[in-house]
Amino acid sequence: MKYSAFALASLLISTAAFAEEDRTGWPDSFTVATASQGGTYFAYGSGWANLVAEELGLTGGGEVTGGPGQNMALVHTGDTQFGMTTMGPAAEAIRGESPIAPGLQMTNACAMFPMYQTPFSVTALSSSGITSISEIPDGARIGFGPAGSTSDTYFPRMMETLGVNFDRRNGSWSDLGGQLQDGLIDVIAFAAGVPVPAVSQLEVQTDVNIIEFTEEEQATIMEAFPVAQFDIAADTYTTLTEDARSVSMWNFAIANCDLPESFVHAVVDIIMSDNERMVNIHRAARSTIPENWDKNNGVIAWHPGAARWFIENAGADIPADQIHGG
Fold it and tell me: Which NCBIfam families match (predicted)?
């Protein structure tokens, strides 16, 4: 969403004024739980953490974590103020079914703002000859990202559903990229916002195949898992010559539900009022726009400060029973 120069200036001025007038209960510093280095979460999360810290005059930054599942736990307990999660792991955590802490219903992590869709994609070296899911050899060593991440939670099950037999490997995206180049693994199954930094780096250093799902594979995955149809645009990677068929899952930023309403409202205002600034942090932020508030679909209770921003600025129809404490 773009604003006129006058409107944007007014928004930024009002944010600064608001922040100066009411900081009751605000923390002096904050942390955003992200994921492993080399992945989109780390780049995107560290970027908006630095932006908010600068705008509000606070100390803040991103923290390397195990990804969405662990982030739900860290934000729920208040070990970090903010984090990022995908909707599948979030739903499991709220039901008390997270492998991170089975039985713990993580209901003190609140929705803050929509981020972007996480496509599920497969990458192999061109020298491997693997150009499709069906060509992945029996017993292939597949890197699924950090243990407990969205990719590690869902992609092995997706591969099994598609009849792929594999040797499961875990690690940070940057580490797995190095292992792929060195021949220590055969395939990387990425679930991360695009462009994935590790894939972009691989493209610079070697020839890779970015493998899409067939229409039948896509339909099978969509029926079995909480994902939607998605196309990775051809201009995302230099390797692609046309859009690549994929599936995706939405990501949301989350906040500890006990944070002051005014604080979370101010943070959301900074993130959502200037999309161009967010896109400069990471191209995936093209989807970090107010009208995507509805992608929460009632999965995560809204933080009152975030809900107020979207109701006031995006015409969001958020029922009171979907707002924490409502």
Answer: TRAP_TAXI (TIGR02122)
Name the more confident of 126 and 8.
Answer: 126
pLDDT of residue 7: 46
- Which CATH number is correct for 5-115+252-322, 1.20.1540.10, 3.40.190.10, 1.10.760.10, 3.40.50.150? 3.40.190.10
pLDDT grade for 131, boundaries at 50, 70 and 90: very high
Q: Are 98 and 73 contacting, i.e. CB atoms less than 8 angstroms apart?
A: yes
Name the token pair of 311: 């109701």
Q: What is the DSSP string of 75-113?
A: HHHTSSSEEEEEHHHHHHHHTT--TTSTT---TTEEEEE
Which residue type occupies 50?
A: N
Residue type, 148: G
> Is 324's pLDDT higher than 70?
yes
How far is 308 from 285, CA to CA, in rounded Å?
Answer: 22
Instruction: Indicate whether this model's pTM tops 0.85.
Output: no
170-225 pLDDT tens trace:
999 999 999 999 999 999 999 988 999 999 999 999 999 999 999 999 999 999 98
Q: Sign of dihedral through CA atoms 110, 120, 244, 241? A: positive
Between helices 68-77 and 150-161, what is the axis angle to 10°? 140
Amino acid at 231: D
* Strand-strand pairing, 109-125 and 29-33: unpaired
Q: 3-6, long-range: CB within 8 Å, 24+ apart, which pairs?
A: 3/273, 3/274
Q: What distance in Å separates the CA atoms of residue 145 and residue 151, rounded to the nearest whole number?
A: 6
